[in-house]
Amino acid sequence: MNGSWLRNHGAQLTIAEKPLVAIVDDDVSVRQSARRLIHSLGYRAEAFGSAEEFLDSGQATETACLILDVRMPRIDGLGLQRRLAGSEPPIPIVFITARASEEEERRALRAGAVAFLRKPVDKEALLRVLGAVLERSASGGGNHDDDSSHWPVRTADRYSG
Hints:
Elements: H1 4-10, E1 20-24, H2 28-40, E2 44-48, H3 51-57, E3 63-69, H4 77-84, E4 93-97, H5 102-110, E5 115-118, H6 123-138, E6 159-160
Parallel strand pairs: 1-2, 1-3, 3-4, 4-5, 5-6
């Protein structure tokens, strides 16, 4: 999938109906560019500079997909993933990182992340993952734990940009 679902379905929904993609990254340039990309596809996107800011926003229950950095001050990405583990409905998480270890990648994927992308993130890889996540969300599918065969990135796969 190349993001065509995003391009084809985003314009058909009202702003209130559009899935929310939340971006949590302490790097302002990453937040801004990811937010612009998601908006350019016709989707709602909110950017947060920390895990605490995201948690305090109250938008976790609305989030259809979370783009999350691994290394951040205070609560890191893996810590936020642990805090959200019991959320209903589950939030699909796409990790993006410039400096994560292989062990952090394995832990993130084992804990249910749908993808683990290396910075600089390849735009088409991100679009493929987001397209699959949002398509599944729109069709009533949940987190990838219920049937991982539908996700574009499984624990053995790895995209790097």
